[in-house]
Amino acid sequence: MSGDHHGHHPEPESPAALRARAIESLLVEKGLISTDAIDLIVRAYEQDIGPMNGARVVAKAWTDSAYKDRLLTDGTDAIAELGYGGNQGAEIVVLENTATVHNVVVCTLCSCYPWPVLGLPPSWYKSAPYRSRVVREPRSVLREFGLELGPEVEVRVWDSTAEVRYMVLPERPAGAESLSEPELAALVTRDAMIGVVKVQAPALAR
Ligand code: FE
Predict the structure, then answer these.
(1) SS3 helix, strand, coil % of the chain, rounded to 5?
(2) pLDDT, tens digit, for every residue of 137-151?
C-alpha cells in the first residue's frame, strides 16, 4: 500500500471539523450543553443509528442470494441500492465470513471506516493497541472480544484506507431460519460487521 492511501491523515482538520469543535467548546463553556450530552449523541451514532444501515444490508444479503452476490461483487453499488452512500467517493468492499474464513477489519494508520453502513467508529477501533495488535496477533485480540476461532479457520485482516473501506458480512446464525428480514437485522451488531465477534443465534442475542 502506498503512503498516498492515507493522504487524508496528516492533513490539518477540515474547516467544518474546526468549526464543529469551536461550536462545541462554546456551547459547553456557556453551559448550553454538557459534554455528557455530546457523548450521548456520539454514542448513539456509534452504536445504534449508524450500524443499523449495515445491519439492513446484512439481513438483505442473508435473505436474498442475488443481492448477496451483487454485494460481494460490488459492495458500493449494492449498498447504494438500499440508499446508503455518499462517502466522499470511497469504495466499500464487503467480505464474507464463512465456517473456514474469518475476516476482521482495521485501519492501521488512523481510523478509516465505512461510515455509510457503520456510522462512527468506536473508540477501541481508533486505539493504537487495536490497530497494531490485530495485525500481529489477530487470534489473541479476537479472544479478548470473546471470539475463539479453531485452527481450521483462516483469519484474514484487512487494512482500510481512505479509498477502500471494508465491511464484514457475518455468518447467518443457526436458529434464525424463521425470522423476517427486520428481525434478522436486529440480531446484527456493529462489532460483527467489523469482524471482532459473530452474530449470536436469536436465543443468545440480547
Ligand atoms: Fe485511516
Answers:
(1) 50, 10, 40
(2) 999 999 999 999 999
